[in-house]
């Protein structure tokens, strides 16, 4: 028996011929059923229709009503959310996204109205009611890095956007992605971008997962010193050539023996740009709908979106949920994350994930740094000391830790406002 409907397989004339042969007793029911490829119940239904009106009998199928009808309440919800998108997002010049997101609306209908509907149905309603902009051109990424292990490469970047249009202030979104699993290892909003913000992202990832083999970043001055471009950088000397100076972020990588890899173009960072696009789109829509303007409220929404991305969504390239792929790789030994351990001479994570500087002790055993004077003991005049600088935005204070010949000698607390370079 064929699974395809009879009107799609056989002509009405052929079916009438078989039924006529059965009626004239030239075919047994079993033979007629076999030739028509249908079940016994369906056969006798067709034979009854044939006998009732032989002249007009046919097997053509006609729908009695439109299949495009859905529950009126669901349709009302779809059109209401599409209209909200059009008025508050698509046509709002302050919102940094100009396309409809039908998958987002599908999830919204389930969470907000407890209504289940397919994306295709939403798209059909959008097209029928003027809420469709057509296909958008896809970005072409001209270079991708292929990895075989989790921890082999972490892609790292930041994005500066008006994520919360009603707040009228742009925020920085700093994000890190494991290249193999596509899991977002770090994502957080910042009011301003600084070297130390990126260093704290390193700290968060490494304390939670271990030390990766390499980091993939763009050529922003925070990640790489480039001669001529960075001549006004307060941390360096202009006479140095490209890569002769290690920016603060890169110094942390070298301390942990992590290889820095630099993208040759923005298009080369396609794997981190795609999650950025997804996050930005979802975040902006949620912030507009919930009228979020405070960065702390935004951080809560971001946490939920990252969890959804890592634990619910099947990645279009790997065909796996990122966190499942990440954990599976670790179980199967397909990980090159190294265990993080404090090793000599470091006393604290503040000696690793920090800003660094050096100064020479004067004749009074003092040093001057950013208009602050520190009295030191345990070190002779004219000797060079190393400074580990660890700001804390929550307390508004910075701990400055002093080292001489790989020995910790002292620490001082300074207000962040009195040490402006920590914001660089």
Tell me about this structure:
The chain has twelve helices and eleven strands. The protein is of the alpha+beta class. It has four domains: 6-52; 72-128; 154-331, Nucleotidyltransferase, domain 5, CATH 3.30.420; 349-423, no CATH class. The strands form three sheets. A five-stranded mixed β-sheet has the order 3-2-1-4-5, sandwiched between helices. It has a four-stranded antiparallel β-sheet with strand order 6-9-10-11. A hairpin with a 4-residue loop joins strand 9 and strand 10 (397-404). Helix 2 (12-23) runs antiparallel to helix 3 (29-36). The longest helix has 20 residues, at 270-289. The protein is elongated, with a radius of gyration of 33 Å. The mean pLDDT is 87.
How would the blueprint of this fold be written?
Blueprint: H1 6-9, H2 12-23, H3 29-36, H4 40-52, H5 72-90, H6 102-113, H7 119-128, E1 154-161, E2 171-178, E3 184-190, H8 195-209, E4 214-217, H9 248-255, E5 259-262, H10 270-289, H11 295-311, H12 322-331, E6 355-360, E7 366-369, E8 372-375, E9 384-392, E10 397-404, E11 407-415
Parallel strand pairs: 1-4, 4-5
Antiparallel strand pairs: 1-2, 2-3, 6-9, 7-8, 9-10, 10-11
Helix pairs in contact: 2-3, 10-11
């Amino acid at each position: 028996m064929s699974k395809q409907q009879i009107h799609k397989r056989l002509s009405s004339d052929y079916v009438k011929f078989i039924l006529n042969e059965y009626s004239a007793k030239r075919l047994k029911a079993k033979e007629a059923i076999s030739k028509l490829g249908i079940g016994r119940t369906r056969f006798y239904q067709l034979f009854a229709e044939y006998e009732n009106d032989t002249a007009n009998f046919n097997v053509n199928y006609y729908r009695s009503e439109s299949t495009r009808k859905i529950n009126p309440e669901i349709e009302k919800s779809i059109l209401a959310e599409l209209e909200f998108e059009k008025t508050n997002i698509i046509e709002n010049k302050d919102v940094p996204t100009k396309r409809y997101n039908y998958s987002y609306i599908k999830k919204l209908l389930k969470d907000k109205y407890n209504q289940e509907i397919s994306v295709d149905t939403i798209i059909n309603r959008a097209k029928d009611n003027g809420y469709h902009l057509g296909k958008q051109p896809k970005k072409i990424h001209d270079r991708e890095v292929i990895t075989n292990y989790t921890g082999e490469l972490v892609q790292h970047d930041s994005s500066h956007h008006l994520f919360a249009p009603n707040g009228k202030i742009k925020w920085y979104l700093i994000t890190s992605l494991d290249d193999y699993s596509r899991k977002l290892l770090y994502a957080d909003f910042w009011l301003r971008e600084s070297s130390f913000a990126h260093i704290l992202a390193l700290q968060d990832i490494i304390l939670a997962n271990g030390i990766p083999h390499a980091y993939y970043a763009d050529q922003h001055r925070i990640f790489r010193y480039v001669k001529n471009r960075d001549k006004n950088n307060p941390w360096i000397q202009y006479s140095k050539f490209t890569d002769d100076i290690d920016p603060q972020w890169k110094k942390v990588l070298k301390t942990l023996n992590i290889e820095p890899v630099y993208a040759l173009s923005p298009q080369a960072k396609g794997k981190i740009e795609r999650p950025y696009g997804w996050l930005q789109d979802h975040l902006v829509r949620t912030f507009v709908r919930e009228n979020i303007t405070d960065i702390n409220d935004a951080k809560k929404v971001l946490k939920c979106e990252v969890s959804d991305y890592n634990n619910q969504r099947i990645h279009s390239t790997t065909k796996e949920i990122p966190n499942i792929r990440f954990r599976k790789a670790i179980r199967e030994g397909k990980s090159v994350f190294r265990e993080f351990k404090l090793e000599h001479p470091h006393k604290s994570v503040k000696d690793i994930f920090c800003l660094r500087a050096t100064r020479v002790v004067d004749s009074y055993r003092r040093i001057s740094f950013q208009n602050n004077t520190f009295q030191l003991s345990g070190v002779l005049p004219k000797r060079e000391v190393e400074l580990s600088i660890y700001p804390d935005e929550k307390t508004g204070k910075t701990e400055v830790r002093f080292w001489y010949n790989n020995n910790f000698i002292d620490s001082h607390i300074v207000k962040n406002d009195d040490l402006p370079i920590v914001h660089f």
